Amino acid sequence: MLYWALVFFVFAVVAGILGFTGIAASAAYIAKILFVIFLVLFLVSLVFPRFRRPPS
Length: 56
Fold this sequence. Notes:
Blueprint: H1 2-18, H2 21-47
Helix pairs in contact: 1-2
């Protein structure tokens, strides 16, 4: 998921340089959403394994 966020970020930068501001804004928005989803899933994966019971 982080890979796709970086892809959309690079796409937004290239589109912004070429002057396609509408496309750049859309790609940057998608990249931001994907990054936030990645960040939330990463934090959840860090928190929940700590609450598992030790194997018997």
